[in-house]
Amino acid sequence: xxxxxxxxxxxxxxxxxxxxxxxxxxxxxxxxxxxxxxxxxxxxxxxxxxxxxxxxxxxxxxxxxxxxxxxxxxxxxxxxxxxxxxxxxxxxxxxxxxxxxxxxxxxxxxxxxxxxxxxxxxxxxxxxxxxxxxxxxxxxxxxx
Length: 144
What we know:
The protein is mainly alpha-helical. It folds into two domains: 1-69, no CATH class; 71-144. Helices cover 67% and strands 0% of the residues. It is built from seven helices and no strands. The radius of gyration is 15 Å and the shape is globular.
C-alpha cells in the first residue's frame, strides 16, 4: 500500500526468498536498502554480492554493512543475528542473540515468528537444535 515503506519490501523479499524466487527477492531487498537510505556504494556492493554469490552474497554484503553501521541499537542486534544465522555463522548468531537478550530487545519476540518480521524469523530455523538457542528461547519464555 505504501511503496516507499522499506520494511514492507524487506518482508516481501523474505517471503519471496522462502519460495525460492531469488531474483525477485533480491530486487525487493535492494529496494528496501535504497529506501533505508543506504549509499549508492552500499547498494552497488550488495548488487555485486548477489551477482557473484547469489542470495548468500547479498546477505553477506548486507551483514558487512550492518556491522559497519551498527551504533549499539538493540533492534539491529537481532537483524545481525538473523543474517549470521542465515549464512550459517551459528556461534556469531548466538552471540548477537545473547547481546540482544542482555539489552532486552523487543525484537526478540519475533525470532520464532514468520511474520511480520519474516526476514528475521526464517533465518533462525537452523538454530532449533542448538542448546544455546534453546536456552535463549527459555530465557525469553518463547515456545521451544
